[in-house]
Structure formats: C-alpha cells, structure tokens
Design goal:
Blueprint: E1 2-5, E2 7-11, E3 14-21, E4 31-35, E5 41-42, E6 48-52, E7 54-60, E8 66-80, E9 88-92, E10 98-105, E11 114-122, E12 126-133, E13 143-149, E14 154-158, H1 163-173
C-alpha cells in the first residue's frame, strides 16, 4: 500500500486537497491529482493522507483537471523503481478504465535513473502488470509479473520473460 500526505489549498474558507505526482526534469511534476474530501483519512497526529489502492475513480474534467472521487471502482498506484542509471517500465495485463503515468527522475535530468509509476482505475478487484527495470539492480530482479488485490497485497513472480502467455505455459508445466 502506498500512502501520500495531502497538500491543502484554502479558498474562501473551503479546503481543497491535492497530491502532486512525479518529479521529472528539474523537479517538474507529472500531474496534480485533486482529491475529494470524502476520501481524506487522518492519522492519530491529525495528519491528512490518502492510501492506495482506494475505492475511487479518476475523472478528467472538460478543461483537463484530474480528480479522484468516490466510486464503486478501484484505483491502484503501481510503481517500479529503476536500477542505478537505468529505467523502468510497466505494461498492464488487466483491463483498465483510466491510466495516468508519472516518472521519478533520480537526478535533475534523469541521468541517475528514471523510475515509472502509474495510477490505474479499474472495475476489477485486482490488477496484473508486467514490469521491467534496467541499470544496475544490485541483485534485484530485472523483470516480473505482479498481481495486486484491493487490500494492497502484492504477489510477484520474478524472472518471467514474456508476459501472460509465459505465465500460462509455466502454470501448465508445474501442474
């Protein structure tokens, strides 16, 4: 589960919550996600946050504003850290409704690595995705398939080369 502290803007006595995703070239954000106040959680120190996966959906307004609002759908935050001086990539294997990519540059121009993240809204109660990373991984796996359920539990099968077809072949061989 990924937890994000919320930023707040107050206008005319009303609070508007948001989270900036990504840190691209020279710290520029990938996008800003406005959060419906019904989704805001508070911890024992009264710190306001949201936690993914969450029972909500991402909606884009006509003018391009991105909003997270309560729904019967689920929104997941997928993230794969790149190796040193490498990149990471995520490929979705499940059906999705909305997909928003964001990138984390590990130096101002990304020469020390660029990690990929993704916010995904789906009507399913879990999500499957294939991931790869390059660069120096210091023993960490370079590829795999991860299954994440609505409780945030991740199950990863590492070193699978060719996506869901390879996983089906592996299942047949191991029966």
């Amino acid at each position: 589960m990924r937890k994000y502290s919320l930023n707040v803007k107050e206008v005319e006595g009303k609070k508007f919550y948001y989270v900036d995703f990504g840190s691209e070239v020279h710290g520029r954000k990938s996008f800003r996600l406005w959060v419906n106040r019904k989704l805001v959680q508070r911890d024992e120190d009264e710190e306001e946050f949201i936690e993914f996966p969450i029972k909500a959906e991402i909606v884009k307004t006509e003018k391009g504003t991105i909003v997270l609002r309560p729904s019967n759908k689920y929104t997941f935050d997928l993230f794969v850290k790149a190796g040193y001086r490498g990149n990471s990539r995520i490929e979705l294997l499940s059906e999705t409704d909305v997909t928003l990519e964001y990138y984390i540059y590990h130096s101002p121009r990304g020469s020390l690595g660029v990690s990929m993240g993704m916010l995904v809204t789906t009507s399913k109660e879990g999500i499957k995705y294939r991931w790869e990373r390059s660069g120096r991984t210091y023993g960490a796996p370079k590829q795999g398939i991860t299954f994440m359920d609505i409780n945030g539990k991740e199950t990863t099968i590492e070193h699978i080369a060719d996506g869901i077809d390879e996983l089906k072949r592996l299942d047949e061989l191991l029966e």
